[in-house]
Each structure stands twice: as C-alpha cells, then as structure tokens.
Design a protein that fits this description.
The chain has 320 residues and is an alpha/beta fold. Helices cover 47% and strands 12% of the residues. The two termini are 28 Å apart.
Length: 320
Amino acid sequence: MPTRVIGLLLYPGCMPAGLFAFADLLAAANRQAGTRHFELRWVGLDPQAVECAQGLRLQPEITLAEARCDAMLIPGLWADSEARMAQALEQNRSLLHALARLNRKTRLWSYCTGVCLLAGSGRLDGEEATATWWLADSLRARFPKVGWQFQRTQLFGPRVATASGVSGHLPIARALIEEQLGAEAYRELARVMVLPRPEPAAPVFRTLGVAEQSDPLLRRLQLLVERQPARLLVAEPLAQELAVSARTLARKVKALTGHALADHVRLIKLNQAGERLILTSESVAQISEALGFGDESSFRRTFKRVTGMTPLAYRQSFRL
C-alpha cells in the first residue's frame, strides 16, 4: 500500500494542538505497523513562519501551492462569536482561494471552527458536513449549498471529512488509521494514546451530548434528567423545574428532537446507563439501581428495545 502524504495546514490564529495530536497518532501508527504508511507535511499559504494561537510561531515545510498531498487537515481557530468567525473568514480570503484551487483529488478534512474555512473555500458545496454546534444558524445562512448535519458529530465522504469539537481531529485520525491499517490497529493505539473515553457508541445516543444541544431548554432538561432517578421522571415536575408548562415542554422537545417528551427523557437515562456500561465495571443490576430504574428486568428489556443490544452485549461491543 503506497504511503499517504497528509498536509497539516497552518494559518494565522489557528490552534495547532490538534495537528500535533493528529501527527502523533499517525507517527505511532507507522511505528506499530513497522512501515511508513503516513508521511506528514507542515503546509502554509506562503513560506513565512505562521503566528498561531497561544503565541506559537511555526514554520511551514512547504507552501499550499507546492503541496502534493493526498489529503489536507485544516485545524480550528479561536473564535467565540459569529462576528469573530466572519472576521476570520475575511482575513483568510487568500487562503480560501488557495484551498478552492487545490487539486480535486486532494481530500480535505477539518474540525470545529476550521470547518468554516473549508466551507468558505466552496469545497463543501453539495457535501454533507458538520461543525461546532453554536455556529449552526450562522453557517446555514452563510453557506446554504452545504448539506449541514449538525446533529452528527462526524461525517466522512470520499472527498471531505468534517467533525465537531476541538478534539475533532481524533475521529478523523481514527477513520484514516482504520481505513489503512484496520480497526484493531486503532484500538491498540487508543488504549495507550487516547483518554479512555470511547467515541459515542450506539447511533441512537449520538446527539445527546450536553454541549451539542443548541437549545438552552434542551440543555437544562438533559442536566435535570441526569440528576433524577428514572422512576421519578414525570412531565409535570420536570416542567415546573424548568419554569414552563408541561404542554410547552412537550411541544418544544418534539419540535427540536422529533421525540415525544417521555421517549427523549428515557433516552437520556439509557445513555447514562450506556456510558456506565462502557466506562465502569459496575454490574447491570448496580447500574439499574444507581440510575433509579424500576427494576432490573424492565431496564434490560427497555435498553435492548432502544439500542438493539442487551446491556452486556453493548458493553462488549463498545468498551475499549
């Protein structure tokens, strides 16, 4: 299998921590395989040193115009508002034009706020993509030709890959390593190099991260449900805690998630159970009791109905 040449893009204000972590994973994959599957190149718009975030000054090895890479990873940048993001797009206009002119065979990957630059280059037009959740409304309005899927944390296609969050480089690295070396190779690397927090497990739970909830009421509801025993989760008390009527709460949850309130609440509690199955050695009975389900057998039936797997099968499938 030929060596894959991966460009790590530097631009003013970018956060290079993810690039370093990505590079470390691929270097470790080469070492593990005993052969050079991946070659990494630090790329800049021009040959000058780049002023990155946190006062770091990094020197590109090669310019974007000269790069002959199989793929290019675009990191995020510090941006805490839509106005700051708009300013960054304007300041990097030359970079966007250069990305647009890259060979169409070059795969482009990005994560977190870096996806905004990839969208600004036009290379996401007609593609499905995700990005950091709080820019969802702005990105939909600014780049309507992109098939935004903000309920997803990662999306991979033959030409582009995008992921949300400042650690979005991890699922991109994982997909690349698994593509080249297989899933077991990544699992071995993850055991020693990645914090032991698995990727989101069953698809049914993938939109339940609190940080991924763009609506404040959904975030408050999730935190409230996570604190309460499952058997006590009833619509009226939940609504009172959130200072809305039960009817308003049910209507809003249905509109934002597509789920009935009771189903969404149940999903949050089962997600907690799924995390405990993956991250702890507690028995199914202990988890059921700790989360306040009525009884263990009922919990087992409900968990299998929602995830398609028994609790023990789920633990075996997703635990690192």
